[in-house]
Amino acid sequence: MTSTSITSGLEALYLAAIDSNVEFVTAVAGYPITDVMERFLESWENTGIIAKWMTNEKAALETALGASVSGRRALVLTKHVGMNVLADPLITSATHTIGSGLLIFAGDDPNVVASQNEQDSRWYGSLAEIAVFDPATPDDAYRAVLRGFEVSEIIKAPVIVRITSRLETVEGRVERIECGRNEKKQRVIFNRSIWELTMLGKHQRYHLNSYPLLVEESENTPLNKLKVLCNDVGIISSGFPSKLVDNVLKTDERWFDISHMALNMVYPLPFNKLREFVKRYKHVLVVEETETFIESHLCVLDNVLGKKTGHMPYGQVDAKHIEYALEHIHEDSVVKYTGIQTIKSRGPRPLCDDCPYLPLYHILSDLDVLVAGDIGCSVRSGPEPLNAIDTAFALGSAITVACGFDRKGIAVIGDFGLAHSGILGLVNAIHCGFDVLVIVLQNKVAAMTGGQDAPDLKDIVRVLVRDVSVFDIDRLPAVDLKCLIKDKLDGHGVSVIYVDAKCRKY
Ligand code: SF4
């Protein structure tokens, strides 16, 4: 049975998961996937889907792998930086093999709206040699998820669906295939025959048996769409920018007859199709975000233009960028996108005016000591006027970074960052005998990602570390905290100060 409705990309992703009989969802909160997870959480009583916020992306994928081998279709939701954290089990899982289908929604953040960097999750397809879908519209997203689960079961490996916030919010017509949860799909149980192979044999099996199926899929899938017209210009695009390209070509008569190849499946790339397309036109523009994933595979050809030739910007793509590139399509290279955003030009993103941790940040700013920050609200204490933390490399990184300082320094980490992966840094600091003062901002929420619960690891930390203090910054004077910090910096070994407070926002 099919039904058609106008819906958002987010809803289309959710409905596709329902219609694919997903039974198990894990997620780590973060822009732009938090809203998708909340859709599963608000409906779990009706759907019966088990949906869990996890503290770490590697744990999220590993738990989903467990669900898959026991026969449950599973879904992992993570923002792009979380792909780095789950990369280890992801890459091995392709050759290890799985059971029922497993999809990863990788939420990319073009233009770094709410993230610590800008990266392109499509590259994880190349690294793990697994399928990547990059849908443009709600209907494409719906179809990519449905087909993604089937592909995952055929090649016995996870499949990535790259999403962005604009895909989530855009509305479009979706034709839904409601086989639904009443018609249970056959569960695929993990096949133990993989243990007959050596580790090398597992890779050989993957390259001989599974990977060619992906190539065939990419060359033949109706999700990769081709419109051939008579102009000497062609455009290759993927993801949400494909929708922008369609709009630009439709609304400006100068470009009515430009050909367009819109890829919804981007790994493996359909090289036979691409070769034919690129040969056919005098100029070929690649429109994609965030990085040059497609363009990098084609840029040895002189007629291919894109970010590397200056025609398109890195990061988020808008209609005006496509129009500019088409107006300059006969130039080999252009110089336009040269700006570098500063905090001054963008405007600061300050901490809440009444944040209880402001006195701590002032103390850190006054001390002559290196401070390793973490990802979370404290990252906003780095720029002027606070200048409180010196570094913020990754979620959970503060303790290990501070262990490398040339004298006893400070690690400032949130309670969620500690549970995510910072606790491993603490174990390492004790094991290696480093000198470090760890300040845990304990407000019991992941404030940057919407106020999800953060676990309280105080009792575990007390087992690991002898020198643990607790300071209630809502009740005690800041001057006492300054004395405590100075005192701990004077001593050797690992010291932990828990700074308890109530987040004013959550
Ligand atoms: S959200 Fe909470 S922890 Fe973050 S700056 Fe605001 S008050 Fe402070």
Give a verbal description of the structure.
The chain is an alpha/beta fold and 506 residues long. It has 19 helices and 21 strands. The protein has helices at residues 9-19, 34-42, 44-47, 57-69, 80-96, 123-128, 138-155, 165-169, 199-220, 241-251, 271-280, 293-298, 319-327, 343-346, 358-366, 398-403, 415-432, 458-464, 478-490; strands at 2-8, 24-27, 50-53, 74-79, 102-107, 132-133, 159-163, 171-177, 225-227, 233-238, 259-263, 265-267, 283-287, 304-305, 371-372, 409-414, 436-442, 445-446, 452-453, 467-472, 494-500. The strands form five sheets. Strands 3-2-4-5-7-6-12 form a seven-stranded mixed sheet, with helices on both faces. A five-stranded mixed sheet has the order 9-11-10-13-14, with helices on both faces. Strands 15-16-17-21-20 form a five-stranded parallel sheet, with helices on both faces. The longest helix has 22 residues, at 199-220. The radius of gyration is 25 Å and the shape is globular. The two termini are 44 Å apart. The mean pLDDT is 96. It binds iron/sulfur cluster (SF4).
Number of strands: 21
Helix vs. strand class: alpha/beta
> Could you state the CATH homologous superfamily of the largest domain?
Thiamin diphosphate (ThDP)-binding fold, Pyr/PP domains
- Estimate the mean pLDDT confidence: 96
Radius of gyration: 25 Å
% residues in beta strands: 15-25%
Neighbour order of strands in the largest sheet: 3-2-4-5-7-6-12
- Please name the CATH topology of the largest domain: Rossmann fold
Low-confidence stretches: none
Number of helices: 19
Bound molecules: iron/sulfur cluster
Most strands sheet: 7 strands, mixed
- Give the termini distance in whole angstroms: 44 Å
What is the name of the CATH class of the largest domain? Alpha Beta
The outline comes out as globular
Estimate nothing, just give the exact number of structural domains: 3
CATH architecture of the largest domain: 3-Layer(aba) Sandwich
Binned, the helix content reads 25-40%
